[in-house]
């Protein structure tokens, strides 16, 4: 990141928490965005669960399978897509430049974004699980071990999506092109990562491409939480591959952090 300070001010964490509050207030003031963010996964779950009501395997409904993918997709939407578009808009309208001119340490700004992603991801997931349970007969994990697995997959997926969103925001040259640069990538990844369709039903070349990106592993990790243990044999690798999932998501977290440090800018492309 350009113009980084050599050290962190002692008040960076409190300022980051304060910045999180500001980010959340701004987010929840956008009622249309709030409604879309929290209702869209539920609507898709209801539509797909109503259309595809057959069991994929004994004790595994399409709703159960699809829910795991929608949780993973929701994490990507709340982290990668939200930040990639939102930061590009803030850069274009001069918000980042003005913030850079204040005494606030830059790390506080990023802590605020992390806090925003965590809160919105948790709320979105909670809404999806609650309504999925009440409306679609979704079965929740039944053991503490599965909830612990859910937690580390959720946090690792959120962290990697956050840094990748910060890094990717630099590709949009203006606020007008931000959605066009980001949204098609997210939609494509959803189709090739086992979100909308059973991953092993996809062509092998599509599976190979999808396996490069974190959403495929995040989706499979969530399936390991919400599907029976014996369904692991039906996965592409013949198991849940939790170690590989952790490795891939960690790799993207490291790569995204390095890219963000290298490419993040506080001003527009045409600024001098």
TrEMBL record:
PROSITE patterns: ABC_TM2. It comes from the Bacteria. InterPro entries: ABC2_TM, ABC2_TM_bact-type, ABC_2_transport, Nod_factor_ABC_transporter. The keyword tRNA processing does not apply. Its main location: membrane. Keywords: Antibiotic resistance, Cell membrane, Membrane, Transmembrane, Transmembrane helix, Transport. The chain crosses the membrane at residues 34-52, 64-89, 110-138, 150-171, 178-199, 240-261. The keyword Cytoplasm does not apply. Residues 32-267 form the ABC transmembrane type-2 domain. It is a multi-pass membrane protein. It is found in: Cell membrane; Membrane. It holds the Pfam family ABC2_membrane. Belongs to the ABC-2 integral membrane protein family. PANTHER family: ABC-TYPE MULTIDRUG TRANSPORT SYSTEM, PERMEASE COMPONENT, NODULATION PROTEIN J. This is Transport permease protein.
């Amino acid at each position: 990141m350009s113009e980084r300070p050599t050290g962190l001010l002692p008040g960076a964490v409190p300022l980051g928490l304060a910045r999180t509050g500001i980010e959340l207030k701004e987010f929840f003031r956008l009622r249309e965005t709030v409604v879309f963010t929290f209702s869209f996964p539920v609507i898709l779950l209801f539509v797909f669960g109503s259309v595809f009501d057959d069991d994929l395997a004994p004790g595994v409904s399409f709703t159960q399978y699809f829910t795991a993918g929608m949780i993973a997709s929701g994490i990507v939407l709340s982290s990668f897509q939200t930040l990639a578009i939102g930061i590009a808009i803030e850069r274009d309208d001069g918000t980042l430049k003005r913030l850079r001119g204040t005494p606030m340490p830059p790390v506080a700004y990023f802590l605020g974004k992390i806090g925003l992603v965590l809160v919105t991801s948790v709320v979105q997931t909670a809404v999806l699980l609650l309504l999925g349970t009440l409306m679609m007969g979704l079965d929740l994990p039944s053991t503490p071990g599965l909830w612990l697995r859910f937690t580390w997959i959720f946090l690792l997926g959120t962290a990697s999506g956050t840094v990748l969103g910060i890094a990717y925001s630099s590709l949009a040259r203006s606020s007008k092109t931000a959605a066009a640069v980001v949204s098609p990538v997210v939609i494509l990844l959803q189709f090739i990562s086992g979100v909308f369709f059973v991953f092993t039903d996809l062509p092998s070349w599509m599976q190979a491409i999808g396996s490069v990106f974190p959403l495929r592993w995040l989706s499979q990790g969530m399936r390991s939480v919400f599907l029976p243990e014996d369904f692991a044999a039906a996965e592409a690798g013949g198991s849940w591959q939790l170690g590989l999932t952790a490795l891939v998501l960690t790799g993207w977290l490291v790569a995204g952090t390095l890219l963000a440090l290298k490419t993040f800018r506080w001003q527009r492309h045409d600024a001098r």
